[in-house]
Design a protein that fits this description.
This protein has 215 residues and is of the alpha/beta class. The chain has one domain: 3-Layer(aba) Sandwich (Rossmann fold), CATH 3.40.50.150. 27% of the residues lie in helices and 27% in strands. It is built from 6 helices and 7 strands, in the order ααβαβαββαβαββ. A 7-stranded mixed beta sheet has the order 3-2-1-4-5-7-6. It is globular.
Amino acid sequence: MSTPIETPDAGAVQFFDRQFERQVGAADYALNPFEQAVLPFLHGDVLDLGCGLGNLALAAAARGCRVTALDASPLAITDLVGRARAQGLENVQAHTAELRHYVPARMYDSVVAIGLLMFFACDDARGLLARLREAVKPGGRIALNVLVEGTTWLEPFGSQPYCLFAPDALSGEVAGWKVLVSRHDDFPAPNATLKRFHTLVAQRPVAPSSRTSSR
């Protein structure tokens, strides 16, 4: 397990570092509702992009998955590495990474991006989603969670570009795949604002057989 130093994406790192510091201080490592929803569908080699403190990554590793966990926050990755070591989970590789333009180096059985894509301009978000989709092995799964239109809680974005997805945009991005989970959730947010999420898990079709029928 190693943590090479790379240049992290600057988008919302400061906002999340404040949140991570609170969670680490309180030892609050519970899975959020979206992570709970997707965990049962993760298997094999897993890429968790924007893993945060790695609660989902560690839970997947504890179930036998081999996890590559990437985040832009050195604070989060340092904490994740320490917890993985303390739990004896050698099947987790955790690194800092620039996420906006990330290109997976190989294919995975499961690809995860929970609460990540909305922190980029829409063109960047769609480009990253396309690259993640292509990194899913035939028969593998992608697990996504984004804020959608109707969200009025914009504090995390500050002055940075962001993307609120159309309510069913994720479904369109996996057209032809088998949808295993699709749920919309509303949560109250500070100052009488609203967070509206879409969570989706979809399975990529298995590649057609290369065998041809003889006449």
